[in-house]
Amino acid sequence: MEWQDTGIVLAARRHGEGHAIVDALTPGRGRTRGYVRGATSRRLRGVLEPGNEVALTWRARLEQHLGAFQVELVRARAGPLLGDPAKLATLSAACTLLTLTLPEGEAHAGAFGALRAVLDLLAGLEVAPEAMAAALVRLELGLLGDLGYGLDLSRCAATGTTADLVYVSPRTGRAVSRKAGRPYRDKLLPLPGFLLGSQAGPVTAETAGAGLRLTGFFLERLVLHPADRTLPDARGRLAALLAAKVGSDAATDGGDDASARTE
């Protein structure tokens, strides 16, 4: 049996002497695995980096077997990101999360498109960490939906209103308005405004961090913990970069306020 498709490398794990088992995400076949001979050779060493777009040929005697991949580089995505911790953390978090959560052999065109959108964003010369985190959050929201755990952020679960949605119920994954959620706000998750579609607010380091906490909560509770897995470490590094930026911005604003008071 043989098929060909384009794909994005998600992970490559060494197998034996100089070979590897590669996870790749394709638009038509979802996450798929293949054995790559000579993975550490000079020709393939830089090809199998997570995030790279490749042309794949898969061959096996039977569909349920671990097939062999023939891999050709289409677009090098990983190399240009070296030296940018936020970009590398975003790339690693996205690829690792998809490897951990997507079932093998099921088509998830939405996940493929979302990953490509993240990669396109990371290819920009000047990209703020909060923009990277927001793109990752959108990918994770789509992933939750693909896996059957989609959040309903369209209207308030209690009143049905579509206005002033600022919370999410950790129990149901549905949005809650400010007024309806006020008595329970300590038990609700913040809903960052940039996720509200036509009513979307700005993406800041603070709202992007809130978005990571929101999707992270549901990914852990519904998808990862039941399989005895955890969120990628790279995701925590991105969240830490955002938290540092929030602290830096707060310190700067405080200094400006103090200067204004002394003038």
TrEMBL record:
<dbReference type="InterPro" id="IPR012340">
    <property type="entry name" value="NA-bd_OB-fold"/>
</dbReference>
<comment type="function">
    <text>Involved in DNA repair and RecF pathway recombination.</text>
</comment>
<protein>
    <recommendedName>
        <fullName>DNA repair protein RecO</fullName>
    </recommendedName>
</protein>
<keyword id="KW-0234">DNA repair</keyword>
<keyword id="KW-0227">DNA damage</keyword>
<feature type="domain" description="DNA replication/recombination mediator RecO N-terminal">
    <location>
        <begin position="1"/>
        <end position="75"/>
    </location>
</feature>
<keyword id="KW-0233">DNA recombination</keyword>
<dbReference type="InterPro" id="IPR003717">
    <property type="entry name" value="RecO"/>
</dbReference>
<comment type="similarity">
    <text>Belongs to the RecO family.</text>
</comment>
<dbReference type="GO" id="GO:0043590">
    <property type="term" value="C:bacterial nucleoid"/>
</dbReference>
<dbReference type="Pfam" id="PF11967">
    <property type="entry name" value="RecO_N"/>
</dbReference>
<dbReference type="GO" id="GO:0006302">
    <property type="term" value="P:double-strand break repair"/>
</dbReference>
<dbReference type="InterPro" id="IPR042242">
    <property type="entry name" value="RecO_C"/>
</dbReference>
<dbReference type="InterPro" id="IPR022572">
    <property type="entry name" value="DNA_rep/recomb_RecO_N"/>
</dbReference>
<dbReference type="InterPro" id="IPR037278">
    <property type="entry name" value="ARFGAP/RecO"/>
</dbReference>
<dbReference type="Pfam" id="PF02565">
    <property type="entry name" value="RecO_C"/>
</dbReference>
<dbReference type="GO" id="GO:0006310">
    <property type="term" value="P:DNA recombination"/>
</dbReference>
